[in-house]
């Protein structure tokens, strides 16, 4: 393994020495660093969207608390009926079945609301990213950069390479707001009925 690396290095040095014109033409790439997390969270559009989504999260939590209270009331009533023998037999089975259905519906409602919040977050990020990309391209052109690197991908970098503040400032002007309501998901086509098995 050591010999291989020494040999490769020697071959590279020979090639560089024998091709001085090519070596002189190569110039180090100019890089800019962009922190997309800051752009999403600190831009005017990101802050506006975060406020709207937080309101929906608060409403979701309130709804969950209401549903939990209703289920607890029903469960306590069933337990009390069992204890005082006022609920038994078919009547108890009917109440228990109704409670199970109500509990399932509540869980489905909360899951749907949580999915809506997550889809809103993803939609906001998508819009901000789409709006930020041409700005990043413009900043790269102005700085003569050939590479824009996400901040998380750089182990260390000079502060002079980062252009996040500039991108945020321009984004605040071009896109001060984004929508928090994603487009409706396309309805799934109903499955065609399975063809009957051929008779043997």
List the helices and strands and how they pair.
Blueprint (H helix, E strand, L loop, with lengths): L1 H17 L1 H6 L5 E4 L1 H7 L1 H40 L5 H55 L3 E4 L13 H11 L26
Helix pairs in contact: 3-4, 3-6, 4-5, 5-6
Describe this structure as you would to a colleague:
- The relative contact order is 0.17.
- Helix 3 crosses helix 4, helix 3 packs across helix 6 (164-174) and helix 4 (44-83) packs antiparallel against helix 5 (89-143).
- The termini are far apart.
- Mean pLDDT is 85; it is low at 1-19.
- The chain has one domain (27-174): 2-Layer Sandwich (Protein Binding, DinI Protein, Chain A).
- The chain has helices at residues 2-18, 20-25, 36-42, 44-83, 89-143, 164-174; strands at residues 31-34, 147-150.
- The protein has a two-stranded parallel ribbon with strand order 1-2.
- The longest helix is centred in the middle third of the chain and has 55 residues, at 89-143.
- It has 200 residues and is mainly alpha-helical.
The geometry reads as elongated
Specify the structural class: mainly alpha
Rounded to the nearest angstrom, the radius of gyration is 31 Å
> Number of helix segments?
6
Report the strand count.
2
CATH class: Alpha Beta
Give the CATH topology.
Protein Binding, DinI Protein, Chain A
Strand content: under 5%
Series of H and E elements: HHEHHHEH
**What is the typical, i.e. mean, pLDDT?**
85
CATH homologous superfamily grouping: Skp domain
For the biggest sheet, the summary is:
2 strands, parallel
Strand order of the largest sheet: 1-2
Tell me which CATH architecture applies here: 2-Layer Sandwich
Number of domains: 1
